[in-house]
Batch of 2 targets.
Target 1
Amino acid sequence: MTNLRDKKNIIFDLGNVLIDINLDITFQRLKKLGFATNEDFLNTFHQTGFFKEYEEGIISTEEFVTLMLQKMPKHVLYKQVVDAWNALLLDYKAERIETILKLKKTHKLFLLSNTNELHIQKCADTVPLVGSLDKLFDKVYYSHIMNMSKPNENIFAALLSDAGIVASETLFLDDSPANVAAAQKLGIESWLVEYPDQWVPKMNALIEE
C-alpha cells in the first residue's frame, strides 16, 4: 500500500489520467476524410512510422499534416486534418484537478506525456480551476519536446535528472502497462490507471490518512 508520506514527488500521465481521450473518434474522422487508418501506426499506447516521429518531435506539425494529406483525397484541407487529429481530446474532470491541487500542497508534481504539438496546443490551456497545465504542475515534460517517448527508460531517467528527484521518493501514474513497467524498472513506484477516474478516490483516501 502506498504511503504518501514516503513520497516527495508524483508524476502524472496526461491522456486518460488527467484528460479523457477517445482514439476511435479520430480514427473515424480520418476515415471520413479518406485516410486509410491503420492501428499498427497509431494506437492507444504506442505509435510507429511518422506518427511516432511526430510524437518525438522528429518532424514538425507542418510536416506531419502534409504527410497525412498525402494519404488523402486532394480536396481535403489542412484544417480538416488538424481538427480530426485533435478530435480524440475530450474533457478534464474537475475532481481530478481538485485532487491534484490537494497534492500540490505537500508534493512536487510533474506531468510526463507522450504527446505532440497539436494536442498540447489544443488542451494545455483548458484545465478547470487553474487554466493551464503549467500552473498545475511544477514542470511538464512532453515527448515531442524531449525527443524521446515512453516506455523507453531514458525518458524517465531524463525527468529524474532534470527535476533533481529520486526514484524511490517518486510515484508515477499512467494508463499503459508498458510505461508502468518501465518506470518500475528504475525503482519508481507506479500505479496502472485502467480508467481515468480510478486513481481519484484512491489518492484522496491516502491524502486523508
Target 2
Amino acid sequence: MINPFNVAGRQARGRSIREQDEQPYAYDSNSRQLRIIKIVLVLWIVLALVTAYADYQERQVLVKYENAGLERTASDKTFDGLLQYATDEGADCNTNATTGVLPRECERVFELVGELDDAETLVFGLFAGYVFLFIALAVLISSFAYQANRNLLTLKSEGQHFSAVSAMLWLFVPMFNFYKGGRIFQEIWKGSDPDVNGAGEKWKNSSPSGMVTLWWVAFAVTILLGPRTIRWFWGSDFVDDRLSLGWGLIAMDIFLAVPAIFAYIAMNRIHERQEKKHEIVGHHMAVPPIKGFSLDQ
C-alpha cells in the first residue's frame, strides 16, 4: 500500500519514472492496441444501428397513441396517476359497479403507456451501453495516441508540438479535445509520412489527413447534437412533437456510426504509415527531450 505521507518515497518513485522516460527507446507497434480498438468500434457501430431500430419502435408506439386520440404522454406512472391521465385524455375510466372492471378504452390507455415505457426503458439501457463503450474508447484511443506520438522520434520525426503524455491527456479535457484531438492526430499523421526522406522536421510540410478531419468533425457533431442532446433540449410530452422529433432521433442514431467508421479508417491508416516508415528507417533508438510539465509539450 502506498503511504501518502511518505514524501521521500514519492520523490524516489518520481525520479525513477523520469529516469525511465529519459532512457532511449525503440519503435513499439500499435498493432495489438489497434485490434482491440477495431473490435470496440464495431460494437459501437452495431449499437448505433440497434438504437436506431429501438427509437423507430418507440415512434411506432407513439403512432398508436396518435391513432388512439391521445395528445400527451403520461408523466405519472402510478395507478392513480394513470387513471387521471386517461380521464384527462377523454377516456372513460369509470369502474363497472358490478364487475369492478375498467372500461376497455381505459385499459387500452394503460396498455399503451406500458408499451411506451418498455420502449423507453430499452432506449435508456442502450444509452448505458454507449456510456460504457465511450469510456472504453476514450482510454483505448488516448493510449493509441500516446504510443503513436512516442513512435515519432523513433521514426526520426523531430520537433513535434505535443509530447506523448500531452497527446494522451488533451483527449480527456472536455471541449478542448474537439480542437486539440484533431491537431494531435494530424501531427501524428504527418510525422508518420513514409515518403519524407531524412531526419528532422521535414515531415511538417506533409499534407494533412482529410479522414482525421472528418473523424473529429463528426465526433463534435455527435457530442453536441447527439440523440441524448436532442431529447434533453427538444423533448416534449406532446405526442405530435415527439413524432416529429422521432425521425431526427433515428437519423442521429445512425449518424453515431459515422465517427466510429472515420476513426477506424484514420487510425488504421496512421498505423500502416508508421509500420511502413519503420521499415524504411529501420531500428532507431530515440531519447525524448527533457521538458517541464505542460499539456502542450
